[in-house]
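Re: Re: ligand-bound prediction request (bumping)

Still looking for help on this. To restate: I need the protein modeled with 4'-deoxy-4'-aminopyridoxal-5'-phosphate bound, output as structure tokens. Inputs repeated here so nobody has to scroll up.
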Amino acid sequence: MSLKVFINGTFYDKEDAKISVYDHGLLYGDGVFEGIRSYGGRVFRLDPHLQRLWESAAAIRLEIPIPRQQLAEDVVKTLRINNIQDGYVRLIITRGAGTLGLDPDRTSDPQVIIIADHVALYPAEYYNKGLQIVTARTIRNHPAALNPRIKSLNYLNNILAKIEGQQAGCIETLMLNHKGEVAECTGDNIFLVRQGELLTPSCDAGILEGITREAVCEIAANAGIPVHQMTLMSEDVYQADECFLTGTAAEIVPVVKVDGRAIGSGQPGPITSELIKRFKVLTAS
Ligand code: PMP
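Reply:
Sorry for the wait, this slipped through. Here it is.
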């Protein structure tokens, strides 16, 4: 059976789920999105995802043409109609079809799209053995150019960094900001463990404020592990006892090598493993 895709209140077979080639989401990456997980039929942290979606939309002066509560219900409906318990939801709001020019005022009908699909996780070996990543030469977008807090459809900045990583044989890539500080990876936030405490770049570093990042901060607080949001440099990464990434699709994945340098013991560390265990409990509850 074909997956059903929600577009503006109607469900279409995946093959027939289409929008205009004049949509500014396609022409210019003009739109916003969210990636959301469902575990055992329950949507994980839907409210914070919707909050972030609304904030991203407001930042680009895009009015979401559907009330928040309605969209929440439509997300659940899309999972149900596709009979997906453990899955991934992609929620997309485009600027809508317009002229070939940039002008957002000359567009009509923002498109509301919900795709529910099965989740494509990193292969299990990465969770057991840890990832090797490299730092990209491409820096993360300057916040005064396109603030990384906005989860926009324009991901070329991250894609360029990802290509660099792929050329070095890595599936994820670390990005610095314009000041040379550690920001985040192309689709994940980064954490370090130093002397039993968690360190992660603060929002001022120019990052997406990850929902998983927030969940990990809460889990750590409950486990009595101090968390510091602070400025971090490459040297902090190289000298860390442990390193891991967080993201909706990846959850928590250990990193064991950065730029060819082993992090800590070169194996996934005990605090990372403990947080992974606690995160599993959280998503199962
Ligand atoms: N940073 C970037 C650039 C991302 O695209 C994402 C989402 N894939 C994250 C961090 C992690 O955010 P979340 O935990 O909300 O998925």
